[in-house]
Amino acid sequence: MPKFAVIVFPGTNCDFETVEAIKKAGGEAERVWYKSSLKDFDGVVLPGGFSYADYLRAGAISARAEIMEEVKALVSEGKPVLGICNGFQILTESGLLPGALRPNKVPRFLCKWVYLRVNDAQTAFTQFYKEGEVIRMPIAHAEGNYYTDSPKVRIVFQYSNEKGNVTEDANPNGSLLNIAGVSNEKGNVLGMMPHPERASDKWLGSEDGLKVFKSMVEYAKR
Ligand SMILES: NC(=O)CC[C@H](N)C(=O)O
């Protein structure tokens, strides 16, 4: 069974839920304090929260922690690395994903349910979805306004309406092309602002996020 490290920085707050979601998806998972080592793990999840209180820019300080060098090594070995919300911010700040997450267009914290269109079902985290599938998950962020000028990016999730139309109305934060999640060219690093772990059981209001973890667990078995 593949084993995942869920890295905990000072201020991380979605680590327990993320561990539960990975276990439900059939993997093993452990919370790993950022001063530890990543030996013996088949993949990594950087969960959400407010690491270092979003000081300077969200994710900027965590991105410079020593453990991120180990994360980079795992990425080059082809292992799956998922960043959720603050984790996505850490991935862009560390250069593991292109682009940046700027303050929301309306500069305040947004907490609400959104619809997403799956644009790329070929990554390590989306192989169990269908291209064009519409899924529902919560967002909770102040700095989720994604921008990039890099062509080396795969658009994985886009904010859409219920029918899957990628419209301006459906864009909560001003992201370029309604981008909610991107991966690297190889498809083994995914960053996403919506929270799949908060949509991983019916009693949470949706289990549409579970396939992110199921896909990742399956990919890590290879
Ligand atoms: N839920 C989160 O991970 C929040 C991320 C970050 N602290 C922000 O507000 O943008």
From TrEMBL:
**GO CC field:** cytoplasm
Enumerate the Gene Ontology biological process terms: 'de novo' IMP biosynthetic process
What does the record give as the active site?
C85, H195, E197
Keyword terms of this UniProt record: ATP-binding, Cytoplasm, Glutamine amidotransferase, Hydrolase, Ligase, Nucleotide-binding, Purine biosynthesis
First-listed, main subcellular location of the protein, grouped into a coarse class: cytoplasm
What is a single molecular function from GO for this protein? glutaminase activity
EC no. given is 6.3.5.3, 3.5.1.2
What catalytic activity is recorded? Answer: N(2)-formyl-N(1)-(5-phospho-beta-D-ribosyl)glycinamide + L-glutamine + ATP + H2O = 2-formamido-N(1)-(5-O-phospho-beta-D-ribosyl)acetamidine + L-glutamate + ADP + phosphate + H(+); L-glutamine + H2O = L-glutamate + NH4(+)
Pathway listed for it is: Purine metabolism; IMP biosynthesis via de novo pathway; 5-amino-1-(5-phospho-D-ribosyl)imidazole from N(2)-formyl-N(1)-(5-phospho-D-ribosyl)glycinamide: step 1/2
Top-level taxon = Archaea
Subcellular localization(s) per the UniProt record: Cytoplasm
**Keyword Hydrolase (UniProt):** yes
Q: What does this protein do?
A: Part of the phosphoribosylformylglycinamidine synthase complex involved in the purines biosynthetic pathway. Catalyzes the ATP-dependent conversion of formylglycinamide ribonucleotide (FGAR) and glutamine to yield formylglycinamidine ribonucleotide (FGAM) and glutamate. The FGAM synthase complex is composed of three subunits. PurQ produces an ammonia molecule by converting glutamine to glutamate. PurL transfers the ammonia molecule to FGAR to form FGAM in an ATP-dependent manner.
Assembly and interaction partners = Part of the FGAM synthase complex composed of 1 PurL, 1 PurQ and 2 PurS subunits.
PANTHER family per UniProt: PHOSPHORIBOSYLFORMYLGLYCINAMIDINE SYNTHASE SUBUNIT PURQ (PTHR47552)
Which protein are we looking at? Phosphoribosylformylglycinamidine synthase subunit PurQ
Q: In which organism is this protein found? A: Thermococcus aggregans
| Encoding gene, per UniProt annotation | purQ
